[in-house]
Amino acid sequence: MSSPNLHPMLNVAIKAARAAGAIINRAALDVESVRISQKQINDFVTEVDHASERTIIETLLTAYPGHGIIAEESGSEHGAKDSEYVWIIDPLDGTTNFIHGFPVYCVSIALAVRGKIEQAVIYDPSRNDLFTATKGRGAFQNERRIRVSKRTQLKQSLLSTGFPYRPGDNFKNYLNMMGDVMQRTAGLRRPGAAALDLAYVAAGYTEGFFETGLSIWDVAAGSLLVTEAGGLIGNFTGEADFLEQRECLAGTPRIYGQLVQILGKYSKFATAGEKAAVRQAEQALAPQEDEGEAPAQVEGSAPL
């Protein structure tokens, strides 16, 4: 249902997100029958992603035929190619969770105007949670104003992240990164849907989020939610121009600053000296194997 108090473009985005959510919820009733294909190793797409995306694009372009579209599954093949208004769509963020029946996934829709995110909707269909933001008007969850957490100490903070899973990802580097963060916090979670992770930072459920390898449709809507809720978002070195850098860090202002101090050296924008120090740390943690010796085995135990 649209609200007269909301920006008209946000109302259209909400309509599109709820229509996509209805498709996702119907499919979730019999998820084992959903057809799945693999884009690359550990990167899945389903018929539900495609159906959700088609519904969103149809809803948006019916209302605004002159607008552009960037969507996860169809890229920029729909909509106007030279519009100042571009919708950025992830029709089902958390596909791997969805195909396992793990209820952490969402629809993410953002509108960029001349390159700046001005409208945002993240819809969690399994909980019927609707997160919205219009630039300059605050962030909301189910029409209730939300703010980032008031916690200021990292040791009291709950953070979320995403683990690398694609070929070529530097998993060892991520383990070092997580090790640096985990020992300083109250907990680290890996829910599996980056857009929802950012919505949860905005709502104050977590104090921060970090991940590499993300695309613009993963973070566009969530970035506006975070800033409109009083948080900060950027890359690991704290620079705000991050949307297409595949490196995202978000948090409350105080926690964000502390995380930049920890994660900055892992950024692809880190100085040569910082990168060298990270490489040295990786080498120091590499397992040392005695030449020619097999691992010791406890009597009666199975081979390691």
TrEMBL record:
One MF term in the entry's GO annotations: metal ion binding
Q: Where does Mg(2+) 2 bind?
A: 90, 93
Q: Which UniProt keywords apply?
A: Hydrolase, Magnesium, Metal-binding
Q: Which cofactor does it need?
A: Mg(2+)
Q: Which residues bind Mg(2+) 1?
A: 72, 92, 218
Q: Which SUPFAM superfamilies match?
A: Carbohydrate phosphatase
Q: What is its EC number?
A: 3.1.3.25
Domain of life the protein comes from: Bacteria
Could you tell me which InterPro entries the record lists for this protein? IMPase, Inositol_monoP_metal-BS, Inositol_monophosphatase-like, Inositol_monophosphatase_CS, Inositol_monophosphatase_SuhB
User: Catalytic activity annotated for this protein?
Assistant: a myo-inositol phosphate + H2O = myo-inositol + phosphate
Mind telling me which Pfam families this protein's record contains? Inositol_P
Mind listing the GO biological process terms from this record? inositol metabolic process; phosphatidylinositol phosphate biosynthetic process; signal transduction
Stretches the record annotates as Disordered: 281-304
Q: Please give the Gene3D superfamilies that the UniProt record associates with this protein.
A: 3.40.190.80, Fructose-1,6-Bisphosphatase, subunit A, domain 1
User: Its family?
Assistant: Belongs to the inositol monophosphatase superfamily.
Write the protein's name: Inositol-1-monophosphatase
Query: Which organism is this protein's natural source?
Result: Simplicispira suum
